[in-house]
């Protein structure tokens, strides 16, 4: 079921200017709980989901305009735009990833293959050349547990490759701008649940490299277009998963290892789940969910 706002709650979409530190409020809604802003490659529009649907929004004006997805079950907040801006990839409630024309006209096709009802695909990234998607494969186990790992899938051939194969909780897989790495968050750096940190792994496979080492719970790494900085959302210590309605911090990891706080807000799930950098790397988009 799509998420909804609680009594007295609102959704607020911000555009954060990295140079000035100003967070400009672009959209407020007391009715629609929208999530996970993308930026179109031309820098003119933002894309969000809400109520199981997908919308585009002009950066400087206008209202939400629905992007039609006929025949696709309600979507969640895992959606990514292709580098050429012609295709939007979405994760559907049926557990599969679909490619749809961003302009709204044309064929919608399923990208992922059927692995049975116990397996679901959660999209997070598209390669710089637009040929490969990075997703998290979630497998429901017979003992009622779940297993998550990082996968790559070729958009044209549907050929897949598994980058991680273990029992650690992984999420948020996203390509580096040069296509050499896949960034993700994982609990592999700790024996205590609720201590996710940021990692990266070569696209060709290998041992994951840990990037953050702190007491907070760090999710959804988003490399900037130049590959020098990583934006992510940081939850309070001990947080399990990436829940909604938490006091979180949107942070920036610089290439020298320095961590900066950009914005503290009430949010979490839906705040910055997918790639949300402006194409020129000067701004970020994120969502807050204040109450009262």
Question: What's the topology here?
Answer:
Blueprint: E1 11-17, E2 23-29, E3 34-39, E4 45-50, E5 53-58, E6 65-67, E7 75-81, E8 87-92, E9 97-101, E10 109-110, E11 119-126, E12 132-140, E13 146-154, E14 160-162, E15 170-175, E16 181-186, E17 197-202, E18 209-210, E19 217-223, E20 229-235, E21 246-254, E22 259-267, E23 283-288
Antiparallel strand pairs: 1-2, 1-23, 3-4, 4-5, 5-6, 7-8, 8-9, 9-10, 11-12, 12-13, 13-14, 15-16, 16-17, 17-18, 19-20, 20-21, 21-22
Task: Provide tags for this entry.
49% strand, globular, Neuraminidase, four-stranded antiparallel β-sheet, 292 residues, single chain, 23 strands
Question: Can you describe this structure?
Answer:
- By secondary structure, this protein is mostly beta strands.
- The protein has one domain: 6 Propeller (Neuraminidase), CATH 2.120.10.30.
- It has a four-stranded antiparallel sheet, with no helix packed on it.
- It starts with 10 loop residues before the first strand and ends with a strand.
- The mean pLDDT is 96.
> How would you name the CATH homologous superfamily?
TolB, C-terminal domain
The total domain count is 1
Largest sheet: 4 strands, antiparallel
Unreliable parts: none
Can you tell me the overall shape? Answer: globular
Fraction of helical residues? under 10%
What's the short story on this structure?
The chain is mainly β and 292 residues long. The chain has a single domain (17-288), classed as Neuraminidase (6 Propeller).
């Amino acid at each position: 079921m799509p998420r909804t706002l609680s009594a007295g709650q609102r959704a607020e979409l911000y555009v954060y200017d990295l140079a000035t530190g100003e967070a400009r409020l672009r959209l407020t809604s007391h009715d629609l709980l929208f999530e996970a802003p993308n930026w179109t490659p031309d820098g003119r529009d933002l894309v969000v989901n809400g109520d199981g649907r997908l919308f585009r929004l002009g950066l400087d004006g206008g209202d939400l305009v629905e992007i039609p997805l006929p025949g696709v079950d309600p979507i969640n907040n895992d959606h990514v735009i292709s580098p050429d801006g012609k295709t939007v990839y979405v994760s559907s409630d049926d557990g599969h990833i679909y490619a749809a024309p961003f302009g709204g006209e044309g064929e919608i096709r399923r990208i992922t293959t059927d692995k049975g009802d116990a397996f679901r695909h959660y999209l997070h990234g598209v390669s710089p050349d637009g040929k490969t998607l990075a997703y998290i494969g979630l497998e429901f186990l017979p003992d009622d547990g779940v297993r998550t790992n990082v996968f790559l899938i070729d958009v044209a051939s549907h050929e897949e490759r598994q980058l991680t194969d273990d029992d650690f909780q992984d999420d948020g897989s996203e390509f580096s701008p040069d296509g050499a790495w896949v960034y993700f968050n994982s609990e592999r750096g700790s024996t205590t649940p609720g201590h996710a940190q940021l990692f990266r792994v070569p696209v060709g496979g290998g041992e994951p490299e840990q990037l953050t080492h702190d007491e907070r719970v760090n999710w959804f790494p988003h490399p900037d277009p130049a590959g020098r900085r990583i934006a992510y959302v940081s939850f309070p210590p001990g947080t399990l998963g990436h829940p909604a309605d938490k006091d979180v911090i949107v942070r920036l990891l610089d290439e020298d290892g320095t961590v900066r706080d950009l914005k503290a807000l009430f949010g979490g799930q839906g705040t910055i789940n997918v790639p949300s950098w402006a194409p020129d790397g000067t701004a970020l988009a994120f969502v807050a969910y204040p109450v009262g």
